[in-house]
Amino acid sequence: MHPSLTDTPALSRRGLLKFSLGATAFLATAGLGASLSGCSSSVAANGFVSLRDGDLLFLRALIPVMLDGAAAPEKMPDAVAGTLKSLDYSLDHLSPEMLKLTRQLFDVLGMTVTRGPLTGIWGSWENASPDAMRSFLDRWENSSLSLLRMGHSSLQQMVLMAWYNRGESWTHCGYPGPPTV
After folding, report:
1. 0.85 cut: is pTM over it?
2. What superkingdom does the record give (predicted)?
């Protein structure tokens, strides 16, 4: 007779709830610690309204991986720059609470203490290879923790909406552009 999931101590509902609660507490504490220690600067990077310097380091490593195949390699630097501007514009128009949650996500990803264990990338974002970024995205997308899956979904939606908001992305997907009125 095979034991059911509830009979297996490692996979018990109570154990999973304890682990999830602990992980949530860890992430909340890390985010709060970052904001209280000054790691979470609310000062926008030069030329941006909402995105901060630390956010840009992460996003410049993330965006090329997410846009792989959607933009020609020689056009990738312009695609990244345009996507960052589009994302910054969108973040500037979020509600204060949604902007706060987005910044908390970026803060957790920016802190060395949380970046390594949560993403598998122990060094700085600038040195992260595209393969390491793909592994991080796969890790979050397929995580047993719903919080990490939600983080993956949020990152994917933010970046792809910012990209497909730009006219240069339309030809790739066959969209001729909005009709002229």
Report:
1. no
2. Bacteria
